[in-house]
Amino acid sequence: MKIFKLVLDFYINSSIHVALSCYALVKMTQHMFHIPYEEPVANFAFFGTVVGYNFVKYDALARSKKNNIRKELKMIILLSIISLVFVAYYFFQLQRITQIIAITFLSVTLLYTLPFFPNRKNARNWAGVKIYIVSLCWVGVTLALPIVNAEIDITADFFLKCIQRFILIFVLILVFEILDLAKDDPHLQTVPQQIGVKKTKILGWILMVVFYFLELFKSNFDQKQLVVNFVLVVLLSLFLLFASHKKSKYYTSFWVEAVPIFWWLMVVFI
């Protein structure tokens, strides 16, 4: 059991789990827009997420403890370096315009992590904006990149899916913010800090209703997708309902982050 926990913790802490969620959302985009088998962009998103998230989480820690880095962190650094090699490999398999967009989101990640201006905090600590930056980045990587790389025409359906994807990521982050409420710096001005837990949950439920009914406005309406989305909405609404700062870290870091994976698997197997 102890070994299982160690493996699970490494799987989560090394950002493999969240990277799989990102990969799943790219595959969902490819499914929704009928993009044929195209692994480079999905793999780029996967390995890029590993590198990006580990950089955000561990950069400062690794630099501050150069001579006293625990074994797990060393393994995470090694995994990140290997992932960076794959990021470079798949980057050069992308279309030129896709590469430019990818670099744009890389710049946002750096802005999110590093303070570019003297005596200023990084974007991660800007009051009230973290949830919007992260949501926009996920929309860009999981929706814009595969669409642009496949040279799909930008239509109303694309913007509709952008709104849906933004809502989905936004609500997922709301669950994280509820659990982190007790330990988050008050200056972060997260949604629960601003409006309270109860109103945050209500906001999340309203947004999920909007997410669901937006599907009806697609030009090529798919009844199967409507059923799959209904299961997703119910599942995420339940996660919101039971979200509390008293929950285990696995509630969000494993179960909530698995929602996009489950969403994709429903499409694959149903």
UniProtKB/TrEMBL annotation:
UniProt keywords, alphabetically: Membrane, Transmembrane, Transmembrane helix
TM annotation in the entry: 6-26, 73-91, 97-117, 129-148, 163-182, 202-220, 226-243, 250-269
Top-rank taxon, per record: Bacteria
The keyword Transcription regulation appears for this protein: no
Protein's recorded name: Prenyltransferase
